[in-house]
Design a protein that fits this description.
The structure holds 2 protein chains of 2 kinds. Chain A is α+β, with helices and mostly antiparallel strands. Chain A has one domain. Chain A has 6 helices and 7 strands; from the N terminus they run E-E-E-E-H-H-E-E-H-E-H-H-H. Chain A starts with a strand and ends with a helix. Classes of the chains: A alpha+beta, B alpha+beta. At the A-B interface, strand 3, strand 4, strand 5, strand 6 and helix 5 of A face helix 10, strand 10, strand 13, strand 14 and strand 15 of B.
Chain lengths: 145, 458
């Protein structure tokens, strides 16, 4: 089963924006048929465990099915605000790349097209490591068991 | 007669170029737009949240400073083309000092040997006096803390003005409009309102216009900038990005395009990333001019590097204006050193311990200290994915905040002495100290702001 776990990066693209101490990260499906996976698996809970201590505030998810996209708003996530953060990335512009590292479970038909396109599933050792850290979304964890 | 005018108006297309999207943006793409874009308007947006606070500090040092440092380079390069093609310029390069920027612009026009150019400055976004006088009742939007309880000196307060004053300046015949703090999109929306004669209470049309403005207000971010991801999202000639042109129709729908022969890409995907950038609720994006609903927007690729934007909606504008308040909040000391070779991470960890102990022994008080291992976890901390192999080199970075400049300096000094006194085999360190100007947002009533237009002609 674990062969069908891919990073979100294989099915979506993303950009992160900032306002004060709040970041917003879009998740946009490369193809409309991928949106079902994104919509059901890129949940507030999944994002919460994936971003861990980087997000201290509320997480809000705005689905945009007409664009096969989500907008995810992360409050208190920029080290106290762009202008006073000690981070090398005070705007959280690289949060898009962190979002795209999220493991998602992909059904066999889509997995086959991804594999045909040369895309690789998530490394198994990495999955075990993330599982031990409690960082895997529930649906992915269940698929591993 | 009226019918004929209406049909001409309905098919008319307004061409607006986005020449800059931050203070230090490239100069030549805007010049290229001015030369070859057949533009009606060239817009330079150059203010981020903190830019204007820093500009206020500049102006306090010298009353002729505090506007965009590249104003001269930009206008010297573009104005001859703008004059030749009848292109008007709208820009927030005035930053904290639109009047000084206006004086400089008049001088540049003279130097270029141009004449019959009207230059307007929009002033009045500076609401520092109002905010200081009402510091007890004004509260930080995100935390609800009154401004009066923030520690540190308030150095600036600038309201996000809307399109209305720019429209008035254009109505008065300005060829160049220079503003301070104006909402980014308003710089683009104003020419639409002026040219198409939109009512400033036609929320539906303003909403559509605002959506078009939003698509280009970050400049090349819609035309392939900050998009490329090799093997996934390819962008042609990324080194030579063309900046976007907005072709707006009277109903507020538009096409985003760029100049032929430039690099970059304009696709549905680049437009979607830009549309969702820096918004929270897509059904309720608040601007000074209109509350925008993006949920009914349509994006259609209508040609190579051409995307049509239609749909979308708007609702009445908010009763208050957002203000960016700049506050001096102490100092940040920063220092970095690289360890290389086998065992580099272990040596870097020992170096971290040495510096922490030295800071403790020296009683160097820092309100916050951050240590990053660049190459391992500097951007995402504990959420970073583990690497398969130990890195061959790692750069250790310290950043600390203190109310006292001396302590920020001491942090750098302790990192500096790692060479010779810390673990073996490192690079030379680099250190720096900078003052923190933090930005907080609050809301003030519209009538607390009294914008004014100052017009000059050469």
């Amino acid at each position: 089963m674990s062969r069908t776990i891919f990073h979100l990066r294989e099915i979506a693209h993303s950009r992160a924006g900032d306002k004060g101490d709040t970041s917003n990260v879009s998740v946009i499906a490369y193809r409309d048929e991928f949106f079902q996976i994104i919509s059901t698996q890129v949940t507030v809970d999944a994002v919460r465990s994936h971003f861990g201590t980087l997000v201290r505030g509320r997480i809000t998810r705005y689905p945009l099915p007409q664009f096969s996209a989500l907008n995810i708003v992360l409050e208190e996530s920029l080290g106290g605000g762009v202008t006073r953060s000690l981070s090398l990335d005070p705007h959280g512009k690289s949060y898009s790349a962190l979002m795209l590292a999220l493991p998602v479970l992909v059904d066999d038909a889509i997995a086959a097209t991804l594999t045909d396109a040369g895309r690789l599933p998530v490394d198994e050792r990495l999955l075990v490591h993330l599982k031990d850290l409690g960082r895997l979304p529930l649906v992915v964890r269940e698929a591993l068991n | 007669m009226t019918e004929k005018m209406n049909s001409a108006e309905a098919t008319r297309v307004l061409r607006i170029g986005a020449g800059a999207s931050y203070a230090g943006d490239r100069v030549e793409p805007a010049t290229d737009l001015a030369a070859r874009g057949s533009l009606d308007y060239l817009v330079y947006e150059t203010l981020a949240e903190r830019t204007i606070a820093l500009a206020n500090i500049e102006r306090a040092k010298d009353p002729e400073l505090g506007y965009n440092e590249l104003l001269e380079d930009r206008l010297i390069a573009a104005l001859p083309h703008c004059k030749a093609h009848g292109t008007r310029v709208v820009t927030s390069m005035g930053a904290a000092n639109p009047l000084a920027a206006q004086r400089k612009t008049l001088e540049l026009i003279g130097r270029l040997g141009l004449c019959a150019i009207k230059v307007a400055a929009v002033i009045g976004d500076d609401v520092l006096d109002y905010c200081l006088a009402n510091a007890q009742s004004l509260r930080v939007m995100e935390t609800g803390i009154p401004l009066s309880e923030l520690k540190g000196e308030i150095v600036s307060a600038n309201a996000y003005l809307g399109a209305d004053n720019i429209v008035a300046a254009l109505d008065q015949g300005a060829d160049i409009v220079i503003t301070g703090r104006v909402a980014d999109c308003s710089l683009f929306l104003a020419p639409m309102i002026h040219e198409f004669g939109w009512s400033q209470e036609d929320w539906e049309t303003l909403g559509k216009g605002q959506i078009a403005a939003d698509m280009v207000e970050c400049g090349a971010n819609v035309s392939g900038g900050f998009f490329a991801d090799p093997g996934y999202k390819e962008v042609a000639a990324l080194h030579d990005l063309g900046y976007p042109i907005l072709e707006v129709s009277a109903d507020g729908s538009s096409i985003v395009s760029k100049l032929e022969g430039t690099g970059g890409a304009i696709t549905r995907a680049t437009c979607l990333e830009q549309m969702l950038y820096e918004i929270h609720d897509p059904a309720e994006y608040i601007t000074p001019d209109v509350v925008v609903d993006f949920t009914t927007v349509r994006l259609d690729e209508v040609g190579p590097d051409r995307v049509r934007i239609s749909g979308g909606a708007g609702r009445p504008k908010p009763v208050e204006l957002k203000v960016s308040v700049g506050i001096k909040e102490g100092w940040i000391g920063e220092a970095e050193i690289t360890y290389a070779g086998i065992g580099c991470v272990e040596r870097a960890r020992l170096a971290e311990n040495v510096v922490r102990e030295r800071l403790r022994i020296g009683s160097v008080e820092l309100q916050e200290l951050r240590v990053d291992y660049i190459g391992i976890d500097s951007l995402h901390g504990p959420q970073s994915l583990p690497a398969e192999h130990a890195p061959y080199e790692v750069r250790l970075r310290f950043a600390g905040r203190s109310n006292d400049r001396k302590n920020a300096v001491k942090l750098g000094n302790e990192v500096e002495t790692l060479v010779g006194k810390g673990p073996s085999a490192s690079s030379l360190p680099r250190k720096s100290v900078r003052e923190v100007v933090a930005i907080y947002s609050c809301l003030i009533p519209r009538d607390a702001v009294r914008p004014r237009i100052v017009m000059e002609t050469v």
